[in-house]
Amino acid sequence: MSSVDGTATTLEQDTPPGPTGPEATGDPTTPTTPTHTQTQTPAQAPATSAETATRCAYPDCERPTATTDRPGRPPAYCDDPTHNRLAAYRRRRDLARRDTTPATSPDPTSGRPATHRPHATGRLRADELAGQIRTLTTDLTRSLDAFAREMASLGDVARAEAQVEAAEADAAERVAEAVARAVRAEQAARAEHTSRTEAEAVAAEAVAALDDAEQRLTTSQTAHAQAVADADAARTQAAADVAAAHADAETRIQDIRDRAAADLDRTRADADAETTRIRATADRERAALTADRDRLAAALQAAEQAAERDAAAIAELRADRDRLRDDARRERDELTRRAAAAQAETAQVRAAAADELERDRAAATDLLEQVRGEAAARLAAEQQTAAERLAALADARAEARTRAERAERQADELAAELRAARAHLLPRPTTSPE
């Protein structure tokens, strides 16, 4: 009965902690742009018919459902082992992503692709959802244990075990699907954290580059735009293998930055080294984010002081500062919208989990009542049969007693007749004369 908890624990432990890829299924073709799963409302549900009820529930599969003689819910998929609830969910998610994923367009002011990132609070929501799923799993496991014990006490153990196993497998599959959603939300939060760190590093590099001459600043911005374009191309090309793609993208970005460092001073080289160190230790040292923000504020203040001393570059410096503020404001608005969407999706997942649990409990209660009724009927039939056998045995005993008494009387009569015959046949004794 502990297979449900084991399924949830295995999904959490086997999920890579990296911030790349929002899916816990390991799909190598999944982009880093988060997508929203389209939930089918009751108004969009297909009409119920005999053909739909006997057809496989896997998308685009026209084969009939598999037949089984086991008790419980009828199967919803064909005899193909790859067609199950989790595979169908992944297929529907991929089809929805193809229809809803927008193409990314570069931002003309920053030179970076305008991709949407989830809000940082998505991870907290995912943790809360995972805790609720574990609680529901524990409650369902206890209910199934009590259900199995009660059914075993009724006498039909084999049938009860088969029904419990079917219900447990269905519950484990639903819990695995819910845990996969929670893990994907957590990975999306990690991706947002890494993207924000990269954006802050790019801003720090841009401000540090303002200390150089106008020609060096133009050259560094061109090199940075080229680096971003090359990184995006490498990320798109390496989508088939996530781990290898990230390693290759990091190598290409580092090579481009090394070539650009030849035209910068020692301050730019130190900033690149600090950026690389922060990216390598971002997951283990999150407290360094506050220090990075303080350093960024100090760099901005130094850039403003340098702009005041340099009358020729003050206009361009102010324009860059305004552009950075606009980008931050747009990103904040986008993150707020993503947070609202994440909260709505969490509420939908929670409601779906509650509905499924209620349906499972109702089905278990109905099945228990049915088994109790069958056991009571079988017990009444056995009691009636035993009563009939006892009555027949009592009749047989009475008849045997009557026969024994009749045989005893006949034996007494025969003994009396035998004594009379002997007395009649034996000669009488004669008296001798005196």
UniProtKB/TrEMBL annotation:
Q: Which domain of life is it from?
A: Bacteria
Q: Where is this region: Disordered?
A: 1-124
Biased composition (Polar residues) is annotated at 1-13
| Entry keyword set | Coiled coil
Segments forming a coiled coil = 157-216, 286-424
Q: Where is the composition biased (Low complexity)?
A: 21-54, 101-110
User: What is this protein's name?
Assistant: Uncharacterized protein
Tell me the organism.
Parafrankia colletiae
Classification of source organism: Bacteria, Bacillati, Actinomycetota, Actinomycetes, Frankiales
